[in-house]
Amino acid sequence: MSQADETTLSGAIRTGRQEASNTATSAIQGLAEAADSLGMRETEGKLREAAEQLKSDTFKIIIMGRFKNGKSTLLNALLGGTTRPVELDGHKGPMVVDDLPATATLTGVSYAEEPYVRAVSFDGETESWPLAKYLQESTLGTDENESQRRFQSVKEFEMGYPAVLCKEGILVYDSPGLDEHTTRTLITREATKRCDAAIIVYRSDVLMGQSELVDAGSVVADGTKLFTVVNLWGNRQPDDRLRGYVWNKYVRDQLGGATWNNQDLSQRDIYFVNADRARDGRYEADDDEVESSGLADFERAIAKFLLDERQRVHLEKFVTQASNLSKTIDLQISQRQKAAHLDREKLKIAYIDAIPKLTAIRTRPAKLANVFEQYRGEAEKTVLRSFDVTIARIENELSNHLMSEALPSGEKFTRVWRQKKLQEEAAKVVSDFVRTRIEQWGSHDIKAELEPLLERLTDDIEDEVAAVARQFDEIRVQLGWVGPETTGSVIGTTERVVSAVAGLVFGDIVGVATGGAGGLRGAAGSIGGAIGTGIILGLLGVTAAPILVPALLVASVVFGMLAGGAGLEDRVKKKLLEETRPVLVKMPAESEPRIKHEVTTFFKRLEAVTTSELAAVIEEEERGITETVEFTQRQQEDKEQALAVLTETAAAVADHRVALQRALVRARQTG
After folding, report:
1. pLDDT tens digit string along 302-322?
2. Are the CB atoms for 270 and 250 separated by under 8 Å?
3. Which of 98, 141, 241, 473 is 20 to 30 A from 231 (CA-CA)?
4. What is the pTM of this model?
5. In angstroms, rounded to a whole number, what is the distance separating the alpha carbons of residues 414 and 408?
């Protein structure tokens, strides 16, 4: 394999990042040093972490589309060669490409000097695979049942690979075909929520069928940047006829835009790429071929998005976080400056009187456990009750659905073989119907049912956090450091806890620096969605049972139905319904442990993040008060010297905050 020094995309990202983040990173590090000088360990740690994340953030891109549209070929082209030779057994890139559908499940590729592959199961367990095994065994076989058996427990693959593109902080996901399997499609949909951009690949010779457009639109998460790539098949060129067809089919008919009139399709993020030529050109170090294939134009468009839009939002996230933390530094400096002018003995007495209040505050995080337990119980009952109702509805509607479905076998087989095919087809109709309805319940229905409950929970969390902050403000007033109108501590403390919880709910999505719109209450819907997704992946992904049990009923239906041919299809359906009803009746009880596990797991995670963050805030606030009191007990000469240092620190913090805003303005100007 040829080695590539740099790709269009990776080079642009390297330059843009260095220019955009240096000023902000330096300012955040300066704030961390100020926090360190004041003994604010938690604040210092968060600022240093923010600086590191600003420097090392990963851009995430997912490639999606129907089977055999050229997704894996395009990804191999984007990966663009390696920083060192890799033995790929003749493959041009780490993604396996075949003349039959190949991609079995989601694969995320990030940079690593030494290639590695990990298979991640639905329960979070990982298994290491040699790259050679991945190249041989990660693809779909010719037997669909065998493929389902092999991959039913694999949620996704994590791959480390020395790709030049990934070295610049890009993680790229290859996804299975959108119409391959409903659970795989759900996994792909969830993955888009973690991604900055999604690339939908169509092929020019069978272009943009209506179901294909609907599938693509339904999978991409709200807020994910969408690029459209038409993979030029064979020697097809992007002439006006093709451009006009794509524009009218996609922009006009799907998006509601104007009719084609020689518009620039790139304004709608639509690009034409010959993926085969792009891959060959990239791996053969033929820049002219890469350019003429259309890949270079597409890479420049992605680079522009990542730098002009995503980089700006990314920078804004950490600038906002650092600015909020700088307020706590200001508060610490201010209270020390004011305390220095107070009577030492009176302050000491006031501090002793405040100790019981500080002790009481330390118990507040533990009390949140009762709040979470109350709402966990309510959520569990809500989910179980809702699941029971959903299964009952499925049972009531299944008969009409199955009996109205025309099975494709018809009269094409002899009686015995026709019976077998009809049984398989009817079982698939039943299984697909049950699976689809449960996925709809987990993705939409339960989210809506949980939202009012979760809004009450988030309100209670915010109230508790605000109460802690107000108690600290009352202590500062008692000590004479601030006036009774002070609310800065309430705002700062709430922002810190909300931000931590939002990080759990929204994952690595940027723009959630302070918990999104509406604070934690605004995240209630996303919390419900996360719970629902966990439940259905637990039910549908960990094992084939109970959802796929109807497919196994074929064996029990085969015997006792050989006599007679008239009305065979209806008799097959009725027999299958008879066998399926007991399965549905038992399904709520059999699913209850998994549902309880998923609800409990999420609430425990939410509780751990909330209480640990609140405890860290309390510890830092209490330490700040104690150290301020100790500061006032110093001799006058030492105190004056310390006050001079505080003045210098306050000026430095103000300068760093100005630098952060300048960096943000510069980032916005580039967009």
Report:
1. 877 876 777 776 777 788 878
2. yes
3. 141
4. 0.61
5. 14
